[in-house]
Amino acid sequence: MGLRSAMKVNYPGLLRERMTSGNYRYRVRVRGDKTQRIALSCNPDHEKFYEQYLAARSGIVPNPIQPEAEPGLKGSIGWLLDQYMQHFGGEVRSGLKSAKTLKKKRNLLSRLHPHSDKPMLIPSHHLERMRDELMDTPAQADAYIEAIRVMYAWAKKRKLVNENPAVGIDRIYVKGDGAEPWSARDIRRYLNHHKLGTKAHAAIHILLWTNCRIEDLTVLGRKHECVVEGVDAIRFQPSKKGASEVTVPLMPQLVKATRAQKVQGATYILGRGGRPYASGDSMSATFIKWCNDAGLIGKSAHGIRKGLGEFLAELGVSQYGIMAVHGHSEARTSEVYTRRVERWRLAKDAMEKVKVSHDF
Q1: What φ, ψ does residue 163 adopt, rounded to 5°?
Q2: Does 135 score more than 70 pLDDT?
Q3: Residues 128 and 208 in one domain
């Protein structure tokens, strides 16, 4: 393969391989499968290296890190990207958009950087070809085209272009039921592997008893604990834009799990060096690793939210009660969790009526 050497660097399963050019590349052996190696797109000195390492170690191919494009000549794709991202950054600074949305937008549109010097109006058939190149990840392909569509809508409104070439491009991703819900058996298996006192043990208790999203694990801590009407509680504002403030009782299980950790800090879950995790993406990659370690391949933190929602519905908690627990601002969001349970109840009631009927 033209490699002169291969050696481990700092992290288990990480390989540094010297190529004939004299440069180094980094690959990671997937945990539990020494034959599978996933290449990283950055070096250890990059801010996203650890995030990419965790993803690869869990068997997930990390998204490639694209270099920032230089501002192009006026009328080029590079120039349009620069104008659009400057505008978007201003909206973030003014509080109209979130920094997380900006990060996602920048990552998606970074795929246009190799075309920076071309005219800024990309023909529709070229966009369709770009979409098809991402056919292996259909949701990502659709998100890419949607980001381009929004950018051109912004440009058209400001009369920078006369048309939006991304309008009319069909979606290719067919949405299923979403993340697979966790069962009580899954949770017991996870906790049997990750014992009291570990970060993994504390993390799942926080997810269960606050019903927070994975990105909220990077900020939740004792500072969010309070007393409401004489009851110990935890109150926080979810990071998802538009989500309502959440106030839930501080469950004894959560207190026990978070206090059992040897190292305590500003947040319940701490990363390397006793510091909070830098991003929701790195926290997500870590949690997937913990799931894989427990033999729960394919599970994610989002499945915990979904599983709890269906569990509450089975107990008879109303749609609005689930809204309160989940921090949803619209009833239709929580309806996802009650619809299946309600359909079953109606079908069961109907069958009972048929059984006692003498008309059949």
Answers
A1: -150, 165
A2: yes
A3: no
